[in-house]
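Take a record:
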Amino acid sequence: HMEKTSGTDAAMSAHIERTIKPKNTDENRTHLNRELIRFPDGVENRTQAIQYRLDTAGLTRKIGNNQVRAIRVLLTGTHEDMKRITNEDRLDEWCEDNLKYLADTFGRENIVSAVLHMDEQTPHIHATLVPIVKGVRKRKKKEEQVKKRYRKKPTDTARLCADEIMTRARLKSYQDTYAQAMSAYGLQRGIDGSEAKHIFTWQYYRDLIQKTEQLRTDIGQLQDRKETAQEELKRAKKEVQTEKLKGAATTAATNIAESVGSLFGSNKVKTLERENITLHQVVATHEETIETLQSKIQTMQADHSRQLLDMQQKHINELQVKEIGHKKEVAGLTTLFNKTLKWFPQIKDMLNLERLCLTVGFSKEQTATLLTGKPVDYNGELYSEEHKRKFMAKDVKAKVFSDNGRLILTIDLRPIGDWFKEQFEKLKQGLNVRQSRFKL
């Protein structure tokens, strides 16, 4: 799922980085969430990462206030598929292949953030794409028709253009290529042309609240209709009593009229009889209609109350099932981790060594190579936590050795701690020489 966003997108950053706590998350699993991309020096969060890419992309045009500055990308599969991938211990591999897909499709430098969320029902990745593109800008039809000579601009100029990335044809292509990249994990493409749409968490709760409010409104309207029907029933009873009195009077008049009619043979007597019968039928129908309406009101009110209770109980049951499942999963993982440490005590040293390699400045790929015992040629800066500074390591060879079961990271066959001390002493000597020259 891809979605444009303008401005700093701070609200989404708060959701992704969990500076706010969504209602559908399990706080006991939030610590399993992790940022998959390392930020540049001086960049601390997703919002700053977006701005850093815009500042360093070499854009020549001013960015408009309403211009799209980033595209949100949501990568995941069905709940069943993602649970299977997690149980098969392939989630890390799945994350790496997702990062590779994003880099190959949109350019590695344009992917400024990718966060794995494990504290929601289904594991998923929130990636952030800054739509920097190159190539000739498509001119509008009016521009093509104007017969003026324009100075040709270089075709490799960097531009901020989300529309070029989010065309209908390309969106369909992303679905196809992503399905191919994820086929190794048993994931399949959704139905081509399906009208199904992604529903955000806030939309789910909004719809639930709207349904609840609608039910309350319907119950209120039914209550009003019930009160109105009761008033109509009272009024109808009064009318019935009045009509009965009129009917009695009419009957008496009819009897008199029949006596007189027998003498004079008038047709008015028969007319009054017919009207009297019709009037009684109308009154009976009115009473029956009121009773039917009152019965319908009671039935509808009971149905709505039952639906509301069923919906609330269903939601409570779902939350309870999720909570039990999450607790079981955490307990299982904790037990498995403790067993792993017991069976393979060297894993703890390897985890500490991995943390050390990443801290001093080795990449994930270089760290993985070092943990296998293979040497790595390195040229760049290495950071020392002891000295709180970086030292230049020019054309050095890093390797991990095992000394009586203890893993040691070395630089040019020297423990990295000794190597840092040597570099620090050289730095101090250089500073002392400069100070001596300055005094002379």
Notes: The longest helix spans residues 268-343. The chain has twelve helices and eleven strands. The CA atoms of residues 238 and 244 lie 10 Å apart.
